[in-house]
Design brief:
Structural class: mainly alpha
Number of helices: 24
Low-confidence stretches: 3-11, 14-30, 386-400, 427-433, 462-479
Shape: globular
Radius of gyration: 27 Å
Number of domains: 2
Number of strands: 0
Strand content: under 5%
Order of helices and strands: HHHHHHHHHHHHHHHHHHHHHHHH
C-alpha cells in the first residue's frame, strides 16, 4: 500500500470532522446551557477587567511623573527623618528652613515641617533610611496601594455584589479625584491617616485594642486625631481612649527624649513647638480663612473681617464636634457608635469641618459618601439589572429607608461633586479667576449641606428602628 493510501486510510471522515467542528461551535455551546453560561460570563468578565485596568493605567499615567519628587513628602516625612539622624530638631523653624527647607521652597515659605505628632516621626525615620528618590517612589507606591484599599471599602459600601473590576475602576477614579491626585503628586500623608481613621471608626466596639492603636497613629496628624479623640471622649469610650493615649505616650516618649537632647532641653523643645504652631497660624497658606482651608471657621473668616485666633478655633472645634457627637449618641448604643450611613457621614464631616484641613484631606470622606449612596445605588442596580431588591446579608432591610435615605443621598451629592471634580480648573473655565478661594468656599458649603442632611436623616428616628437594624448595618458596612 502506498504512503498516500495509508494516510487517507487513517484520516478522519467528513462526518467525524463535522462533529469535531461542531464541538467548539457557538451552536453547540448554545445547546449546552452550562457551557453557554460559562462562555458568556468569561467574555463579560474579561471585558470588565480590561476596561478597569485600562482606566487605572490611564489614571496612574497622569500622576506617574511625580513618583520620585513629591514636595510635601520631602518636607513632611523625609527631611524630618533626616533631621533626627543629623541631631537636629525638625520642629525648629529656623533650623529646618536653613538645612532642609531651602531645598524645597514653597510659595508662602522657605519650607517648614508643620506640627505633626511625635509618632509621625517614626514614619519619617523609616523613610529617611533610603535615598530621597527611592523613598519618594516607595511612598508613591504605598499611597497607590492605600487608595486601592480605600477603593475596596468604598465598593463594598456601595454594593457588596461588586467585584474586582469595580474595585480597580474605583481605584482609578480615586487617583483622578482632587484629593487622590494631590496625595500622589505632592506626596501628602492623608492616605495613611485616612486608613487608620477608618480602622478606629470600624473597630471601636469589636476590637478595642486595634482601635486604640489606630487612635495613637491618627494623633500623628492632629487634624485627623483630635476630632477622633474628642468623639471618643464625648461617647465615653474610656477603654479605647485610655489605651490609645497610653500607646501614643509610650511611642512618643523616646522621640521626645531625643528631640529634647537635640534642642538642648525640654524647655527649648517646648518653645520650638509653640513657635512652630504660631508660625503655622500666621502662614498665608494655613491661617484661618486662607484660600485653601475648607473647615467651617475658615468659611466665616474668609468673608467676615475680624480676629480669629486660637479661641475662635477651639470654639469652632467644640461646636462642630459637639453637634456631631450629640446626633451620633442618639443614633448609637452605649459603648460605641453604629456604622449607619448617616453616622459615618457625621464622623467624617466632624473630622473635616472642625479643624484646619486642605482639600487633599477630603479623602477621609470616601467611605461616608459611598455609604450615603449605598441604598439608592443598590436599588438602581437592582432596577437596571432586573434583579430582586437588595437586602443586607442577614436578610434585614438596609438601615436607611424611605425619605431618610433620599435626604442623605441628595445632600451628599454636592459634597461628592466638589471632591471629585477638578475645582480650580472648572472655575478657570467659567472665567471666575484663579478660583482657589471660590472652590474652598463651595467645598465647605457642600460639606455643611451634607452635615445638615445627615442630621435630618437621623432626626426623630424611632429607637426601635435604630436598635433592630444596627447589627445588620455594622455587618454590612464595617471595613
Amino acid at each position: 500500500m502506498s504512503r498516500r493510501r495509508r494516510v487517507l486510510k487513517h484520516a478522519p471522515g467528513r462526518a467525524e470532522l463535522r462533529g469535531r467542528v461542531a464541538l467548539f461551535s457557538p451552536t453547540f455551546l448554545s445547546d449546552d446551557p452550562t457551557l453557554a453560561a460559562v462562555a458568556r460570563f468569561a467574555g463579560r468578565r474579561a471585558v470588565r477587567w480590561t476596561c478597569a485596568l485600562a482606566l487605572l493605567g490611564v489614571a496612574v499615567g497622569t500622576v506617574a511623573h511625580s513618583a520620585t519628587h513629591g514636595t510635601d513628602f520631602r518636607l513632611n516625612v523625609w527631611y524630618p527623618g533626616q533631621a533626627l539622624f543629623h541631631g537636629r530638631d525638625p520642629y525648629d523653624i529656623a533650623s529646618f528652613e536653613r538645612y532642609y527647607g531651602v531645598h524645597v521652597r514653597e510659595m508662602f515659605s522657605d519650607g517648614w515641617f508643620p506640627l505633626y505628632g511625635p509618632v509621625h516621626l517614626w514614619l519619617a525615620a523609616f523613610f529617611a533610611l533610603f535615598p530621597a528618590s527611592l523613598a519618594s517612589a516607595f511612598w508613591f507606591a504605598l499611597n497607590l496601594a492605600g487608595l486601592a484599599v480605600i477603593a475596596a471599602v468604598v465598593t463594598k459600601a456601595l454594593d457588596r455584589r461588586l467585584g474586582g473590576p469595580a474595585i480597580v475602576a474605583v481605584t482609578a477614579l480615586l487617583v483622578l479625584s482632587r484629593p487622590g491626585r494631590a496625595n500622589l503628586e505632592i506626596g501628602q500623608a492623608a492616605v495613611f491617616y485616612t486608613l487608620v481613621t477608618y480602622v478606629a471608626w470600624s473597630q471601636v466596639r469589636r476590637r478595642p485594642w486595634l482601635a486604640a492603636f489606630a487612635l495613637a497613629f491618627a494623633l500623628g496628624k492632629p487634624p485627623f486625631g483630635l476630632p477622633l479623640l474628642a468623639l471618643l471622649l464625648v461617647r465615653r469610650m474610656w477603654t479605647v481612649l485610655g489605651r490609645g493615649v497610653a500607646v501614643f505616650v509610650v511611642a512618643s516618649a523616646p522621640l521626645v527624649a531625643w528631640l529634647s537632647v537635640n534642642a538642648g532641653s525640654p524647655a527649648s523643645l517646648w518653645h520650638a513647638v509653640i513657635q512652630n504652631l504660631s508660625y503655622t497660624d500666621k502662614n498665608p497658606l494655613d491661617a484661618t480663612g486662607s484660600s485653601g482651608r475648607i473647615d467651617a471657621l475658615s468659611l466665616i473668616a474668609r468673608y467676615v473681617h475680624g480676629s480669629f485666633g486660637g479661641a475662635a478655633e477651639v470654639g469652632a472645634f467644640v461646636v462642630v464636634v459637639g453637634i456631631a457627637a450629640l446626633v451620633v449618641t442618639r443614633a448609637s448604643a452605649p459603648g460605641g457608635w453604629s456604622l449607619a450611613p448617616a453616622v459615618l457621614m457625621l464622623l467624617g464631616l466632624a473630622t473635616v469641618l472642625s479643624v484646619a484641613h486642605q482639600y487633599y484631606d477630603l479623602l477621609v470622606l470616601a467611605w461616608p459618601l459611598a455609604a450615603a449612596l449605598h441604598d439608592p445605588a443598590s436599588r438602581l442596580v437592582d432596577r437596571l439589572g432586573d434583579r430582586p431588591a437588595h437586602r443586607a446579608p442577614t436578610g434585614a432591610p438596609s438601615i436607611e429607608l424611605g425619605w431618610r435615605a433620599v435626604v442623605l443621598a441628595v445632600s451628599a451629592l454636592p459634597a461628592l461633586a466638589v471632591t471629585v471634580l477638578p475645582g480650580n480648573e472648572t472655575v478657570k473655565i467659567l472665567g471666575l479667576g484663579s478660583g482657589t478661594a471660590i472652590v474652598s468656599t463651595v467645598t465647605t458649603v457642600a460639606l455643611l449641606l451634607a452635615m445638615g442632611g445627615a442630621v435630618v436623616s437621623l432626626a426623630d428616628r424611632p429607637p426601635s428602628a435604630t436598635d433592630s437594624s444596627r447589627a445588620a448595618a455594622e455587618d454590612h458596612l464595617a471595613a
